[in-house]
Amino acid sequence: MKRGDSAGLGSGDWRAMLAAYPVRNIAAAVREKGENTVTVVVKTQKPKYMVPPISWFVPYSPEREIDLDAIGTRLWRWCDGQRTVEDVIDLFKDTYDLSFHEARAAVVDYLRKLIQRGILAVMMAPDSQENQAENDAK
Amino acid sequence: MKPPRLPRSGQISPAWQTWVWQGLSVTLPPDWEMLQFTRNPEVGRCVFGDRYQYRFELDWKRMQAPPDMERMVSDYRAKLSEDGLSDVRPLGHSPWLGTSGQDGERDICRYGMYSAESRQILEAVFLWPPGEKSKPSFEGRVLDMLRVLTRSEDGRQRWQAFGMTWHVPATTVFASCAVEPAQAEAVFALRNNRGAATFARRGMVSEWLTTSVSEWLVQTIPAGYAQESVTHAGQSGHDVCSLVARRERSVLKDWLYGRRQYEACAWICPGDRRLYCVSRWMHQRRGQQAAGLDVALSCCSGLEVLL
Question: Which of A125, B12, B34, B293 is least crowded, fewest Cβ atoms below 10 Å from its Cβ?
């Protein structure tokens, strides 16, 4: 196993990733499911191919519900747009007594899944955006 | 980022962490973790990183005969210059021969040596953060603490990684290693496929362990085995649960093909609140002793569990 590779550490420097801010999709609705769990509801875009006769047979829902478990809910609540990925990792590490990279692998993997499902986005830190622009210019 | 604290001369700071992998022992700052590793004892590498980047790489390669290290390092230096590394300069920290260079804003220092003891070429690579100058005193300290470990008198090999210290017979093969968040597991097998031992450490116990450790241990019995006994013993503040199971087969089949036994021990270390488990299965042919697979797992200095 290459723990680094598995979590996208190929470049050997992950400062920009840690400095990014995970922000919630403001269009997503949150329903409290239990004491420690929530369901996040996001609107889905109707695919262009969803026209008759395909739409007669293929079901389409204008909303998608994503149930988060207790750990996922905790992570979701920490992603308030004020905390960086590094802050969230540190909170996760301290809460569950993990090492930094154990927490990093778990948090980054989970955030990636939330981003793929459209309930979370990542905002790059301003200085890392400038660095990126400088690199692009070079 | 604060620079790691250096231990005083002649003393290893308890805060620094020792890793032992493939017979190589390296002591590094506490926030450096192993992020990549190789199972191959002939050629491979381990890569360590702090929270922001890869910081240290240890490579090894077994050789048939001692190489001409000086020429090898000089050729390597020329190759690094060709590859675009700037400001390539020789470095030395006896018996290590080194080279430093700059890759963009980063200092990279490489040291190599031949260990006659293990017949290996070792390479230690220090990757410095952007804008930070390399520190020869820090590198020298790490190199001084890098050791090739000899096997113990009883032929066992020591490993130390991911919060565990374990001993296995040197004759075993490192079959697999899986490291996931809050879960690390290493498997060593006998060459003749007559037995295997597994060392595991699991975190976030309060999130998933809904039963007692003994009940959990019983659930880990492989399919086809029947539980024979479960016992508890208190050792240095740890409640160690031990289990023995035997493969369910007819007496005649056992007599003809031999028996298989499964043994396991599990406990939660009060120090880090993680669950540790060591297990092994062994094949015993009729009229023969069970294959030698004496293993040990330790979670902290207070406890070593032998199987």
Answer: B12
